[in-house]
Amino acid sequence: MKKHLYFLSIFASFIAYSQKAPKQYSFQDLIKAPAHGLEQQPMEKELGVTLWSDDFSDTSTWVINNSGQSGIEFGWNINSASDGWWAASGINSTSDGNYAELINGDPSASPATQALNVVYTLTTSQPIDITTLGGTNQVSLQFLQYGARFNDSQEILISTDGVNFNPIGNNDDLPVLSSAGGAPYTNPTLKTINLSSILPATPAPIWIRFSWTTAFPGSATNPNVWITYGWYIDDVKIVTNPGNDLQLVSSTWGTAGLNYYQIPTTQVAPIDFSAKVFNGGTNTQYNTKLNVNVNSGLYSSLSAPTNIAPQDSTELQVSTSFTPPSTVASYTAVRSIVSDSTDDVPANNALSNITFGVGNFIYARDNGTFSGNTNNGTDGFEAGNLFDIFQDQTVKAINVRLAGGGSGTTVGTEIYARLYSIDPTTGDFVFESESDPFIVASNNLNTNLVLQLQPAVTMLQNNTYLAVVGSFTTGLRVSNAGTSDPQTSFFYDIPSDTWFYQTSTPVVRLNFDSSIGLEEDFTNVSCYLAPNPTAGESSLTIESKNLGVANITITDMSGKEIGAFDKAISEGSNTIALSSEGLNAGVYFVNVSCQGSIKTMKLIKK
User: Fold this and answer.
1) Are both 153 and 134 inside the same structural domain?
2) Residue 229 is part of a domain; what is its CATH number?
3) Quick one: 220 and 82 in the same domain?
4) What is the CA angle 263-265-270, rounded to 5?
5) Domain's final residue, options 190, 216, 240
6) pTM of the model
7) Which site from 119, 128, 150, 417 is most exposed, i.e. has the minimal number of CB atoms within 10 Å?
8) Are 66 and 203 part of one and the same domain?
């Protein structure tokens, strides 16, 4: 991936980011996942000695400031019931009884009731004296939580004077739950914040605060940025740190900054693996290494051994890249972090296996596990991914997956695929080619849809391209699969003429199959309907370069055939009368197959 891509600016941490302003999703785009539909997951093993704890059984141990709002539906409350609009059952904490809950109105009400310009805080009423309790700065704050993020800023802060509070953590690392994907937090989730690098060796007494407000203060007049599903807190503790605790901060893999789950044989290039780790224990970790093994020994590499002092972090990168053979095969990379010590909390440095493959034609950034979709409500948009090219190659088509189901792509939506190059000076996306308009039928949903580019494009070595699918109207829903690093997958809002980047990966792939289009010559025949919409008769005009026969079928929105006939076609312009008499008002599709060309047109009966 080329450095000029970073001319795009970052303004906020959310699903999409813009050169101008952050994109807010409407409430209708939310995915409402009820609490009772989630299984309780096993929590991380808890180590160390508990110096202080609170389970909210005594409400007087906390001070609530609800920014002048009143009523159970605004701000923090402490009781044993879930009072918000989203989760019926609350948090599955082990202590039972009371817990703290954050609410800000009900966005599903008509009209919505969320309060604007608020900061809700929940603070310990008395300071916690860690030193008197027998501790040092080698402690961590732990608590159970549940909820989900939308436009929330969920922060954890501490103070040494009860007045001035400094942030020590947040939930920005957890995914946003919206139509673009994401999920609620595991119910419950154990959150651990290591305080050893924050506190002095002999810490003064501290106050703990949980704070909620919007993550978009620059758009504070927009009610959408004040929507929250809710935030639940229980079983807050300060515990001593374990002796040996390497913690995974982040991990990366891929080629030149981009990772591909399907790689054409012509685009094989070296793949690198790295991980950033933090020593959250009290002991130095000696000979810490990242170990990567592909297909049980086909490739194996270690990073250089590193000693990591307590509270230090380091980047581990394997010493040699993995270059797959240019033959069709599947690969699984097993990654692990090892050191001389036995880790007391191995769960927080576990690395999942990576499965990818080399094939004949398809270049894919998505991981093939479909979850959620990218859409723009009632507005037109484009969405897609960047691809680096390592060898000159002609691309014939762009493959996409359109989400189906009740919240999926609307049958009858007109879509297209486009390919952009990148201006090396400005970083702007430059149009290269696009497909013919395509009318979505029911059998095009939840499947691999091939949209042929007109014309094909020779993609040049050492260049980066953006492949997208788009629509000028409402109804397009692009399946997502996996996550993307910032500024590697993009979203274009057509009404505002603004590019955003998104962190969910749309299923938009390059197709290098050289046989595409060999049996279809779309330049021989062109078709159009007029008038359209119509209350009675329309004329189907077919412009042809040769004599032939046109096979014409008419289907309804479900794909049911309404009528079919053949018509002899002469060279030049041919006009065929189509009567809609007897048809109910609605949308129909006229499909013309002639001389190897296939055209689909939408016919609207008034």
Assistant:
1) yes
2) 2.60.120.200
3) yes
4) 65
5) 240
6) 0.71
7) 119
8) yes
* pLDDT, tens digit (0-9, with 9 covering 90-100), for 14-37: 334 333 333 343 333 333 333 333
> What helix, strand, coil percent values describe the chain, rounded to 5?
5, 50, 45
Cα separations (Å) of 301 from 219, 248, 263, 271, 338?
A: 48, 19, 21, 12, 13
Let me know if residue 544 belongs to a domain. yes
For residue 133, give both structure tokens. Answer: 């309790």
What the block records as the tokens of 105 is: 């109105």
Could you tell me the CATH number of the domain that includes residue 458? Answer: 2.60.120
Q: CA-to-CA distance for 110 and 92, rounded, in angstroms?
A: 30
User: CA-CA distance, 471 to 488, in Å (whole number)?
Assistant: 21
Please enumerate in sequence order all residues whose Cβ is within 8 A of that of 384, keeping only pairs 6 or more positions apart, or say none.
398, 466, 467, 468, 469, 489, 490, 506, 508
DSSP calls for 280-341: -SSSPEEEEEEEEEETTTTEEEEBPPEEE-TT-EEEEEBSS-B---SSSEEEEEEEEEE-SS
- Read off the pLDDT of each residue in 551-568 and give the average, rounded to a whole number: 84
Q: Which residues pair with 467 in a beta bridge?
A: 385, 419
Q: What mean pLDDT, rounded, does the chain reach?
A: 87
User: What's the total number of domains in the chain?
Assistant: 4
CA distance 56 to 93: 11
Q: Extract the runs of DSSP E, i.e. beta strands, from 339-413.
A: 354-359, 362-363, 373-374, 381-389, 393-401
Contact predicate 478/385, CB 8 Å: no
Same domain, 179 and 68: yes
Instruction: Please write the tens of the pLDDT for every residue from 476-514.
Output: 999 999 989 989 999 999 998 899 888 889 999 999 998
Q: Is 107:74 a contact under the CB 8 Å cutoff?
A: no
List pLDDT tens digits, range 283-303.
Answer: 999 999 999 999 999 999 999
> 344 and 207, same structural domain?
no
Strand order in the sheet with 246-254: 246-254, 272-279, 313-317
CA distance 270 to 262: 14
Of 199, 217, 240, the one marking the end of a domain is 240
Q: Tell me if 22 is assigned to some domain.
A: no
Which residues, in sequence order, are CB contacts of 193 under 8 Å at separation 6+?
Answer: 140, 141, 142, 156, 168, 169
Using CA atoms, how far residue 215 sits from 212, 228, 601, in Å, is: 9, 11, 44
The residue segments making up the domain with residue 121 are 31-240
CA distances, 126 to each of 76, 98, 206, 573 (Å): 18, 19, 9, 87
Q: Which CATH number fits the domain that encloses residue 570?
A: 2.60.40.2550
Over 60: is that where the pLDDT of 43 sits?
no
17 within domain boundaries: no
The arithmetic mean of pLDDT across residues 533-555, rounded, is: 85
